[in-house]
Amino acid sequence: MKIRDIRATTVAVPLEAPLLHSNGAHWGRFVRTIVEVEADNGLIGLGELGGGGQSAEAAIVALKKYLVGHDPLMLEALRLSIANPTASLYNNRTQLLAAIEFACLDLVGQDLGVPVSELLGGRLRDQVPFASYLFFRYADPATGRGEIRTAEQLTDQARELKDQHGFTVHKLKGGVFDPVYELECYRALAEATGGDLLRYDPNAALSVSEARRFGEAIRDLPNDYYEDPTWGLGGLRQLRGLGLEIATNTVVINFEQLAANVLDRAADVVLLDTTFWGGIRACVKAATVCDTFQLGVSVHSSGELGIQLATMLHLGAVLPNLDRPADAHYHHLVDDVIADGMFRYVDGAINVPDGPGLGVRLDPDKVAQYAELYRELGDYPYDRDPGRPDWYPASRQPRWADPTSPQPESLRW
Q1: Calpha distance 330→325 (Å, rounded)
Q2: How confident is the model over 168-189, as pLDDT tens digits?
Q3: How many Å apart are CA 247 and CA 87, to the nearest integer?
Q4: For labelling, which of 107, 125, 204, 254 has a CA lying 20 to 30 Å from the CA of 69?
Q5: pLDDT of 310-348, one tens digit each?
Q6: Residues 278, 94: contact at Cβ < 8 Å?
Q7: Residue 51 above 80 pLDDT?
Q8: Which top EC class is given (predicted)?
């Protein structure tokens, strides 16, 4: 089997409401680039990337000269061809590599008639548990619904998601409002969820001293972990005396950083992202290192549609040391581009696909619909807040958002 062609299509899939985070916002939609790798036997493997609000079509199509004629089984050679560690100093293609790897694994699984999880060593579980992922949100401008900027709105959504999907772990994406205000919201969340485990993730927006004060103020709560409260391995190391497990998805995303964390521990839990690490296989390798040195692992979410969610499920299925629920933005979406409808949560978990390869196929009508929506709306800047046009993100954020500020007039950039 050889690769014959590669195609890329950018889609914009609506969210229930715009999601706020420390670096800006998802402006009411996820912009994702869908990748199709066609083999000479007629099979088509699927990949996906995005998350920054912009199309990656041109970058993916530019890899065609690297891919045509390549055997999708030769994944290490593919990695070195696309994302050579020294060449990538000039052109970092890690996330492009991930999307291509997804598609190649999908091709191989289809060709052999087995799920990707079987190619990775065989599944240890048939369902992957997930945490709720709670964001502060602007109201959807079309409906006026979906706003979450108060503790009451936050706890109402947490209860609704718990009732609807069965979540028993809840993660608050913070770093948006003043830490004192977010502390009030987090404590309200703890009270509203009745002893469920909690995660707080301000995306490294706090200074070390702010992160220490926040951590000290939540030690009495049922915390699962404290994620990226401040920036850098050096910053996280200064918080190790808090008595909270520290997690990261920002400063341990490659093997050099993982080695540094092993030699001088900063984070207790490494959140493995199939895109950030350059593919599912890299995450499996990293999980093995973490298991060796007794670091916890979970599966990170970077704003996925159903294709990348399938990669997260196959990853979660094969990790013996997956001891925490995964993250997913998925329940904030109103639709998907995969056939047979969206994945469903049952008792806080999603079933690992049983079909060959990734186990998902595209719905061509949905792809066409959301490709047209992308052409209409275009890109958006992930690192800007539509409610604060003159603001820009910074680590150790000096300018917090105001939860009482007016709703932004436009979600156009």
Answers
A1: 14
A2: 999 999 999 999 999 999 999 9
A3: 30
A4: 254
A5: 999 999 999 999 999 999 999 999 999 999 999 999 999
A6: yes
A7: no
A8: lyase
Long-range contacts of 92-96 (CB under 8 A, 24+ apart): 93/59, 93/63, 94/254, 94/276, 94/277, 94/278, 95/49, 95/56, 95/275, 95/276, 95/278, 96/49, 96/56, 96/59, 96/60, 96/63
On whether the CB atoms of residues 215 and 229 are closer than 8 A, the answer is yes
Q: What is the DSSP letter of 139?
A: P
DSSP assignment letter at 53? S
**Separation of alpha carbons 156 and 168, rounded Å:** 15
- Helix axes of 151-165 and 179-192: crossing angle, nearest 10 degrees: 40
| Tokens (6 digits) for 385 | 């807040």
- The alpha-helical segments, DSSP class H, found in 137-237 are 151-165, 179-192, 208-217, 232-237
Half-sphere exposure of 73 (CA within 13 A, CB side): 8
CA–CA distance, 10 with 24 (Å, rounded to integer):
21
The helix (H) or strand (E) run that includes residue 366 is: helix 364-377
Q: Please state the pTM of the whole predicted model.
A: 0.97
What is the pLDDT, as a whole number, of residue 398? 78
How far is the C-alpha of 402 from the C-alpha of 382, rounded, in Å? 19
Of the chain, the end-to-end C-alpha distance in Å amounts to 43
DSSP 8-class letter at 210: H
Q: Is residue 206 helix, strand or coil? A: coil
Give the tens place of pLDDT for each residue, 195-219. 999 999 999 999 999 999 999 999 9
Would the pLDDT of 397 be above 80?
A: no
Coil, helix or strand for 338? strand
In angstroms, the Cα distances linking 10 to 240, 306, 362 are 42, 14, 13
At 83 the three-state DSSP class reads: helix
